[in-house]
Amino acid sequence: MKKLLYSIAFLALFSCDSDKFDSEVQLARLFSDGMVIQRDISISVWGKGIPGENVRVSLAGLVGSASVDADSTWIVELPKSEAGGPYILQVNEEKVNDVYIGDVWLAGGQSNMEWKLKSSVVGAEQEFEEGGNPEIRFFKVPNSYSAIPQTELKGGEWKVATKENLPDFSAVAWFFAKRNHAEKKVPVGIIESNWGGSPAEGWTDLEILAAQAHSYQEEAKDILANPEKWEKENLTNEKRREIRDLQAKSPDSLVANEVSSMEYNDSKWRKITLPAANPLQHIAWVRKKFSLKETGNVSLHLPDIEQMAFVYLNGKQVFYKDWGKPFDDIILPESNLLKGTNVLTLRVVNTWNNQPVIGSPGEMYLDQNGNKISLEGTWSYSNNIVEPELPIVEFYAFKPGMMYNAMIFPLAKYPIKGVIWYQGESNAGRHEEYKEVFSNMITNWRNIWQIGDFPFLFVQLANFMERKEVQPDSNWAFLREAQKNTLELPNTGMAVIIDIGEADDIHPRNKKDVGERLWLQAKNVAYGDKVLSSGPQFESFEREGTSLKIKFKSIGDGLQLKEGEELLGFIIGDSKGDFSKAKAELIDKSTVLVNLPENLANGEIRYAWADNPGVNLVNSIGLPAEPFRFNFE
Are 42 and 15 in contact (CB under 8 A)? Predict the structure, then answer.
């Protein structure tokens, strides 16, 4: 009778879960077919069950057992194992198939880590042609957030790196994993836990944040004190998100065809000037008429659109641009064009900040056989006549601790080799706080995993935005410095990518070099291979009259210029803080000479100090020099 009551209680405990259980144990979501378990460290297997029942776990000849605790949880520890597989993980009557033991890495951060191979990544087609690798597997943690620490993930499953699955994997993590497998000859598992646009404080324990005197301290304290209030608002916010996303996803086709047709009367719409003004909000519908003498060979050039866009020509949809996809020139179907007057209609939605963007100067036109028809100027615009305005959705996920509670804390018993991390863009405006919050986040994660100071490898921000030779007040430069200073923590490594960013895109498409530079860091930090893993690093300086000799380390066979004959990237500041471009030159394999202005008694030298600095100093294997600054006298 007692066992029957426990069984009833167990079923009631999970009655709200959609899963069905065929045995007396339930495994955590991470334990599923295709999983990879970390080698050379004790293995934790856990889940839920009927209190008092025994749980027996076996894997690769290893056996362990435990009893289910009164709170219905259980955990079994198995001895460490060498790499190998495939194996079967047996837990009572439950079987998890196709299990490998190898190296497991957590891939965290924001959109540049989240960025998928299929999203116009340089070299992705070759990866698709090669067809993946059956011994590399990815587990994508679904985006979720909570004011209360969670014990289980909201979903997710292990996926083998097949040709079909590969396009949806993190590009950076894939190139990293590929090198890990090739060089260490072991299966590799990647746990993706990342979220585009997310700040570091969202990935950190609330109790730590509440103790820090930073801009988010009071909010962290409030969430800690009133978690139920925040959970209620989170649920309400998600309902608004569902409504918004449903509205944004696609219009009613009949309505869309009507409002994009030549016959539609848009006299009640506003008149706006694009791209000079951008008053766009909600679901932005815009229309513009143009005239043609002939109907053939007409392409649309409109690369600057954020985020999603539906393109209509004379009442027919001719193109759809999804979030994260480039808007390449498109050939307008000749069958949809008319001699004389035509109408081009766009439906644009930006769910990131509710501010759609259409066009930029000189980049809005039709091209017919080399003749450009400008689309700049007056357009008709509406955001509430065709479709209702979008509900306001807050970024509660990015509040202190919210993602940590739902996407990191539930992972903490799963052994890992280490973390690869690409984040910082969202914290650039608060760079003065970043070193402390980022360092505390790393320490926080290491503490909850309880496997020591595991390797934590991160990417320094790429070059981005308008190129400026002199920009001493750059937030991105200060954020890069905060990242560099985080290297004070043990077992950390930083991949520098100051040379592969893109001025007009915060998401550089060269993810291969990013992943492989992270791997070089891993070889040093995680595996002790003692390879050259960083670009030239400032070591020391010596003043000689009106010049400075700057010594570098991590140079390999010597300093080089990646391109050109002039050494770029150095600026010099005087005692008043006024900066100007500095003339610099290589004088030997490890030294740069910087010329100083006459009568300059003291000042400051900075290298690669701008949002998007022009730089060309590399070491013998082509890795770029790290940004730095120092004072001299």
Answer: no
How does the average pLDDT of the chain come out, rounded? Answer: 94
Q: Which residue spans within 133-261 are E strands per DSSP?
A: 133-140, 158-161, 188-194
Tokens of 568: 């770029």
User: 10 Å Cβ neighbour count for 307?
Assistant: 18
Where do the domains of the chain lie?
Answer: 253-382, 537-632
Element (H, E) at 141: none
Topology of domain 253-382, per CATH? Jelly Rolls (2.60.120)
Contact 584, 596 (CB under 8 A): no
pLDDT at 24: 79
Residues of 108-146 as b/e, b for ≥16 C-beta within 10 angstroms?
A: bbbbbbbbbbbbbbeebeebeeeebbebbbbbbbebbbb
The answer to whether residues 271 and 379 touch, using CB atoms and an 8 Å cutoff, is yes
| 126-146 mean pLDDT | 97
- The pTM assigned to this predicted structure is 0.89
Sign, Cα dihedral of 247, 251, 254, 258: positive
Residue where the block lists tokens 């190129």: 467
Mean pLDDT throughout 297-319? 93
Q: What residue type is assigned to position 355 of the chain?
A: Q
Q: Identify whether the C-beta of residue 111 lies closer than 8 Å to the C-beta of residue 125.
A: no
17 confidence band (pLDDT: 50, 70, 90):
very low
The candidate with the shortest Cα–Cα distance to 407, out of 460, 365, 445, 366, is 445
Answer for the pair 569, 499: CB distance below 8 angstroms, yes or no.
no
Reported CATH class of domain 537-632: mainly beta
| Cα–Cα distance measured from residue 570 to residue 589, given in angstroms and rounded to the nearest whole number | 18
